[in-house]
Every structure is written in structure tokens, then in C-alpha cells.
Amino acid sequence: MKLTPHGTREIVLASLIAVAGAVGIALLAALHSPWWLILLAVPLPVWLWVLWFFRDPHRNIPDGEGLFVAPADGRVADITPLGPDSELGCDGVRVGIFMSVFNVHVNRMPCDARVEEVTHNDGAFLDARDPQAIERNESATVRLTYTVDGQIWPIVVRQVAGLVARRIITVAAPGAEFKRGQRFGMIKFGSRLELLVPDSLGGEVLVQPGQRTVAGETVLVRMATERADHAGG
Fold first, then answer.
1. Which whole-number Å values give the CA distances from 84 to 93, 150, 198, in the listed order?
2. How many CB atoms lie within 10 A of CB 201?
3. pLDDT band at 121 (very low <50, low <70, confident <90, very high)
4. Tens of pLDDT, residues 45-69
5. H or E element: which one contains 142?
6. How far, in Å, CA of 158 to CA of 32, rounded?
7. Is 191 one of the catalytic residues?
8. pLDDT tens for each residue of 177-197
9. What DSSP state is assigned to residue 124?
10. Which of 97, 96, 94 is nearest to 81 (CA)?
11. Which residue among 86, 100, 191, 200 is the active-site one?
């Protein structure tokens, strides 16, 4: 099982706790104390869960022009029309994905794009399912440009912290070029990811609220057929 390097600190800490627990178990067992069974039930499951949380499985990135894939594992929480005052600066749509602590938390780029700006905003740590969390919680906004046949569209990906999530990692930097499905960061321990695309792209949203998503694989939005065909030709 491949693990993300973003979890090195937590994995090392969990491993030290597991080792300390194993020593305690051995001592209690040697003393014929029944408490070793209780001690066994704590560090080992925690260690296994930490390893599971920081897993980074391979993903099969779909081919084809004009496809915008999910930036995160989870479930579609909402699909919201946006006005010109949104982070896009124009009319568009936002697809929000809620990630529980059991989902893979490695975040992936929705499309081939160039990073224009990354903005980190301090904020609260409300439950990511709370409607107010979208505006009030700590977040990182990654502004991208998506280019097709010389025409440029703004795309935005937002990482939003949750009730348990306390650290947003964004390795994308202005000027960097990313491919669809490429890793660009993660949020530790439960959170929300958002994909914002402009209406001018002519995109069709292919998911529904409640639908499960797989980062890098599930297609959230597909560009209008005539645009995609023109881009591919």
C-alpha cells in the first residue's frame, strides 16, 4: 500500500505510540496483569487507522478532451450556481465534495491547468457539512487557467478545512503546470473540496448530490461536445 509523504509525521508518531504500547503490553503480560488486553485494543487500531488514512492509491485517469475530474474522494455535497461575484469572477457552478475521515485525502487536479494564484485564508473549523463552513472555515483557494485552442478559462479548486481537519497542504505554486489527476496536496482528517467552473465553458455537470466520487477518476463536468471536438481536432 502506497502512502503519501504528507503523512510522515503522523505515521512516525503513531508508530512510536504503537511501539510504546507493545512494550507496555509485554510488561503487563509478564506480570500476568489482565490490563494488557485493554492496552492491546488501543495503540494497534490507532496505528492501522493512521496508515489507512494516509494511503495514496493509484488512480486510472480518464482520457479525452474537456473532462474535469473530481479533486477528492468523498460524496457530492452540493451543486450550486454562482454569480459574477464568486472566486471565478464570472457566472459558473460549484461542485462541493465532502470527505469523511475514512476517505483517501490526497487531492488531485481536475484538469490540465496552470496555477495562477494560491490564497490561504484563516478561519473557523466548523463541520464541513455546515453550510456556513463554505464561507467561514479555513481554506486554500487555487486559481487555475485552463486553455483550449488558445482560449483561456478560469478554474478554481478550494480546499476547505472541517471540524477535525486542522492542516491544509497545497503544493501547487503560481506558474506550475499540472496534468489532469496529478496530486497537488491534501487536507488532514476530514474536510471539503470544491471545483468551480465558468458557465462560458459550456460544461455539463455529470454528478448528483450524494454520489460517491473517486479523485482523479470520477468526471464531474464535461465540456460542451462541440468545444471538446474542436479542441481535440
1. 11, 23, 10
2. 22
3. confident
4. 777 877 878 889 999 999 988 999 9
5. strand 139-148
6. 54
7. yes
8. 999 999 999 988 768 899 999
9. B
10. 94
11. 191
Q: What is the largest CA-CA distance in the chain?
A: 76
For the whole model, what pTM was predicted? 0.81
Instruction: Please name which of 49, 60, 41 lies closest in space to residue 13, comparing C-alpha atoms.
Output: 49
Give, in order, the Cα–Cα distances in Å from 135 to each of 90, 99, 121, 123, 194: 18, 17, 10, 9, 12
Collapsed DSSP state (helix, strand, coil) of residue 30: helix
DSSP class per residue in 165-200? --EEEE---TT-EE-TT-EEEEEESSEEEEEEEEGG
Q: How many CB atoms lie within 10 A of CB 67?
A: 21
Contact 188, 167 (CB under 8 A): yes
> Can you tell me whether residue 201 is helix, strand or coil?
helix
User: Please, are residues 213 and 74 in contact by the beta-carbon 8 Å criterion?
Assistant: yes
Q: Yes or no: say if 157 and 193 are a contact pair by the CB < 8 Å rule.
A: yes
CB of 161 within 8 A of CB of 137? yes
SS3 82: strand
